[in-house]
Amino acid sequence: MTAPPMSPPHNPVGPYDPRVSHRALRGEVLTLAVQPDVAVFGVFDGGRYDAFAQTLDALGLRGLPLLTSDGEAAGAGPWIVDPYVDPKATGPDTPEADADDTAEAAAKAMADALAAGDETGGGALLTETSMHTPDPQDAALRTRVEALVSLDDMVPGGVFWIVPRHVTCQDLRAHLRKVARMVIPAAYLPEDPGTETAPVLFRHSQGDVLAEVLPALTPHQRRSVTGLAQALRFRAPSHPFETGGCLYRLDAPPDVDAAPLPLHLSADQMEQIGDAQLAGSRERVGQYLRDVDPSCAQRDRASLRAFVHRAEVAGDGMGLSSEQAHMKWAYLMAITDGGIDCPTTRTALHETEAHPDHRIDDIFAEVDALWEESAAG
Q1: Which long-range contacts (CB under 8 A, 24 or more apart) does 279-284 make?
Q2: What is the pLDDT, as a whole number, of residue 136?
């Protein structure tokens, strides 16, 4: 299958440095957000932040959860954030004593109003008739766009949707809700649902997920995902380019009809996505090693990738399965120059009924104790 036109960043650098991609993303979003013919909205996974609604409130932004359920489920799911709305001008007059609940209350009020047929979300969202051509010199708008991009700096991987100016936040929200479900072969689920296929949630609010899923889709399916958008911008930190950047620029497929929704994925597509997910996991293990072990930080990308694969094979042989366990195992392999990969360790990992993924913490603690004894003596 042909991969979508996802291009590497301008002026790429060799070593992986997410700060470079963030600066490039910031520049593009700031420029696009004030263009007369397009609008930019941000979509973020609220569950990856601490109290996302309160974070928006502190930044002076207005957002709306895509999920309509009450309580934590909606707040921890995907959110769409509109930088063109000034919460101070549209938000509820809430007593100072209830300030912590302001953002949650506003989001719920908007969702209730939309469900009741009020396209303005109780006056909090812009409609097509109220959209105006942004003023590039509007300092308040620039501040909100800066705040929007800062969300991706806090937690890399938000998705920025570039849409025609007439497309409203409500329009995009409705589209995102429609494409949030995909149907996959049941064989790829952890538990058998008793059917040949089953629906799953498509977490399109995460750049890493888009980098894994979009290349596996057909042009017609990608058109269904992009929908109203002219283009997407997102960082996928687990899938950097060989040049070192991780900013993806995806243009909507031109002159292609959209596939019907929900999208149905084949076994071949699921295999391709699975390979991409494994590559992303290996990249995260490598990034972890660069952060915690000086010797790994000195390796070039090819050398580190080879070491991660070697540690992964050894970890599989030890019975490890989770990504976190493989991270710890790779670290132990690095600091012991592979010496931890021995029959004694395997025996220790399997001497109790606990899964090796949990036992690795005990091995980790024992190695730490040995290092401390060696340093003291």
Answers
A1: 279/239, 280/208, 280/211, 280/212, 280/238, 280/239, 281/238, 281/323, 281/326, 282/308, 282/309, 282/312, 283/238, 283/239, 283/240, 284/238, 284/323, 284/327
A2: 76
Q: How far apart are CA 183 and CA 75, in angstroms?
A: 24
Contact 160, 25 (CB under 8 A): yes
Q: What is the distance between the alpha carbons of residues 112 and 282, in angstroms, rounded to a whole number?
A: 42
Do strands 181-185 and 263-264 pair parallel, antiparallel, or not at all (unpaired)? Answer: parallel
Phi, psi angle pair for 370, to nearest 5°: -65, -40
Distance CA 251, CA 9 (A): 14
Taking the C-alpha atoms of residue 40 and residue 354, their distance in angstroms, rounded to an integer, is 49
CB 79 within 8 A of CB 63: yes
The span from the CA of 253 to the CA of 226, in Å, is 8
Query: Do the Cβ atoms of 31 and 259 come closer than 8 Å?
Result: no
Q: Quickly count: other Cβ atoms within 10 Å of residue 320's Cβ.
A: 24
Residues in contact with 41: Cβ distance below 8 Å, sequence separation at least 6, in sequence order: 80, 81, 82, 83, 160, 161, 163, 169, 172
d(CA 3, CA 335): 39
Give the Cα separation of 320 and 358 in Å (integer).
Answer: 9
- Asked whether residue 100 carries a pLDDT value surpassing 80, the answer given is no
For 94, other C-beta atoms within 10 Å of its C-beta total 14
Residues near 138 by Cβ (< 8 Å), separated by ≥ 6?
34
What beta strand segments (E) does the chain contain?
6-7, 38-45, 62-65, 78-82, 159-164, 181-185, 197-201, 231-235, 247-251, 263-264
Pairing of strands 181-185, 197-201: antiparallel
Weakest mean pLDDT among 30-34, 243-247, 269-273, 348-352:
243-247
**Which tens digit of pLDDT belongs to each residue from 192-222?**
999 999 999 999 999 999 999 999 999 999 9
Provide the CA 209 distance to its chain's centre, in angstroms.
Answer: 6
Task: Compute the average pLDDT of residues 152-173.
Answer: 96
Q: In angstroms, rounded to a whole number, what is the distance separating the alpha carbons of residues 209 and 211?
A: 5
- Torsion-angle region of residue 343: left (phi > 0), alpha (psi -120 to 50) or beta? alpha
- pTM: predicted TM-score of the whole model, two decimal places: 0.84
Which token pair is 146?
Answer: 């800066």
Task: Tell how many helices (H) and how many strands (E) occur in the chain.
Answer: 15, 10
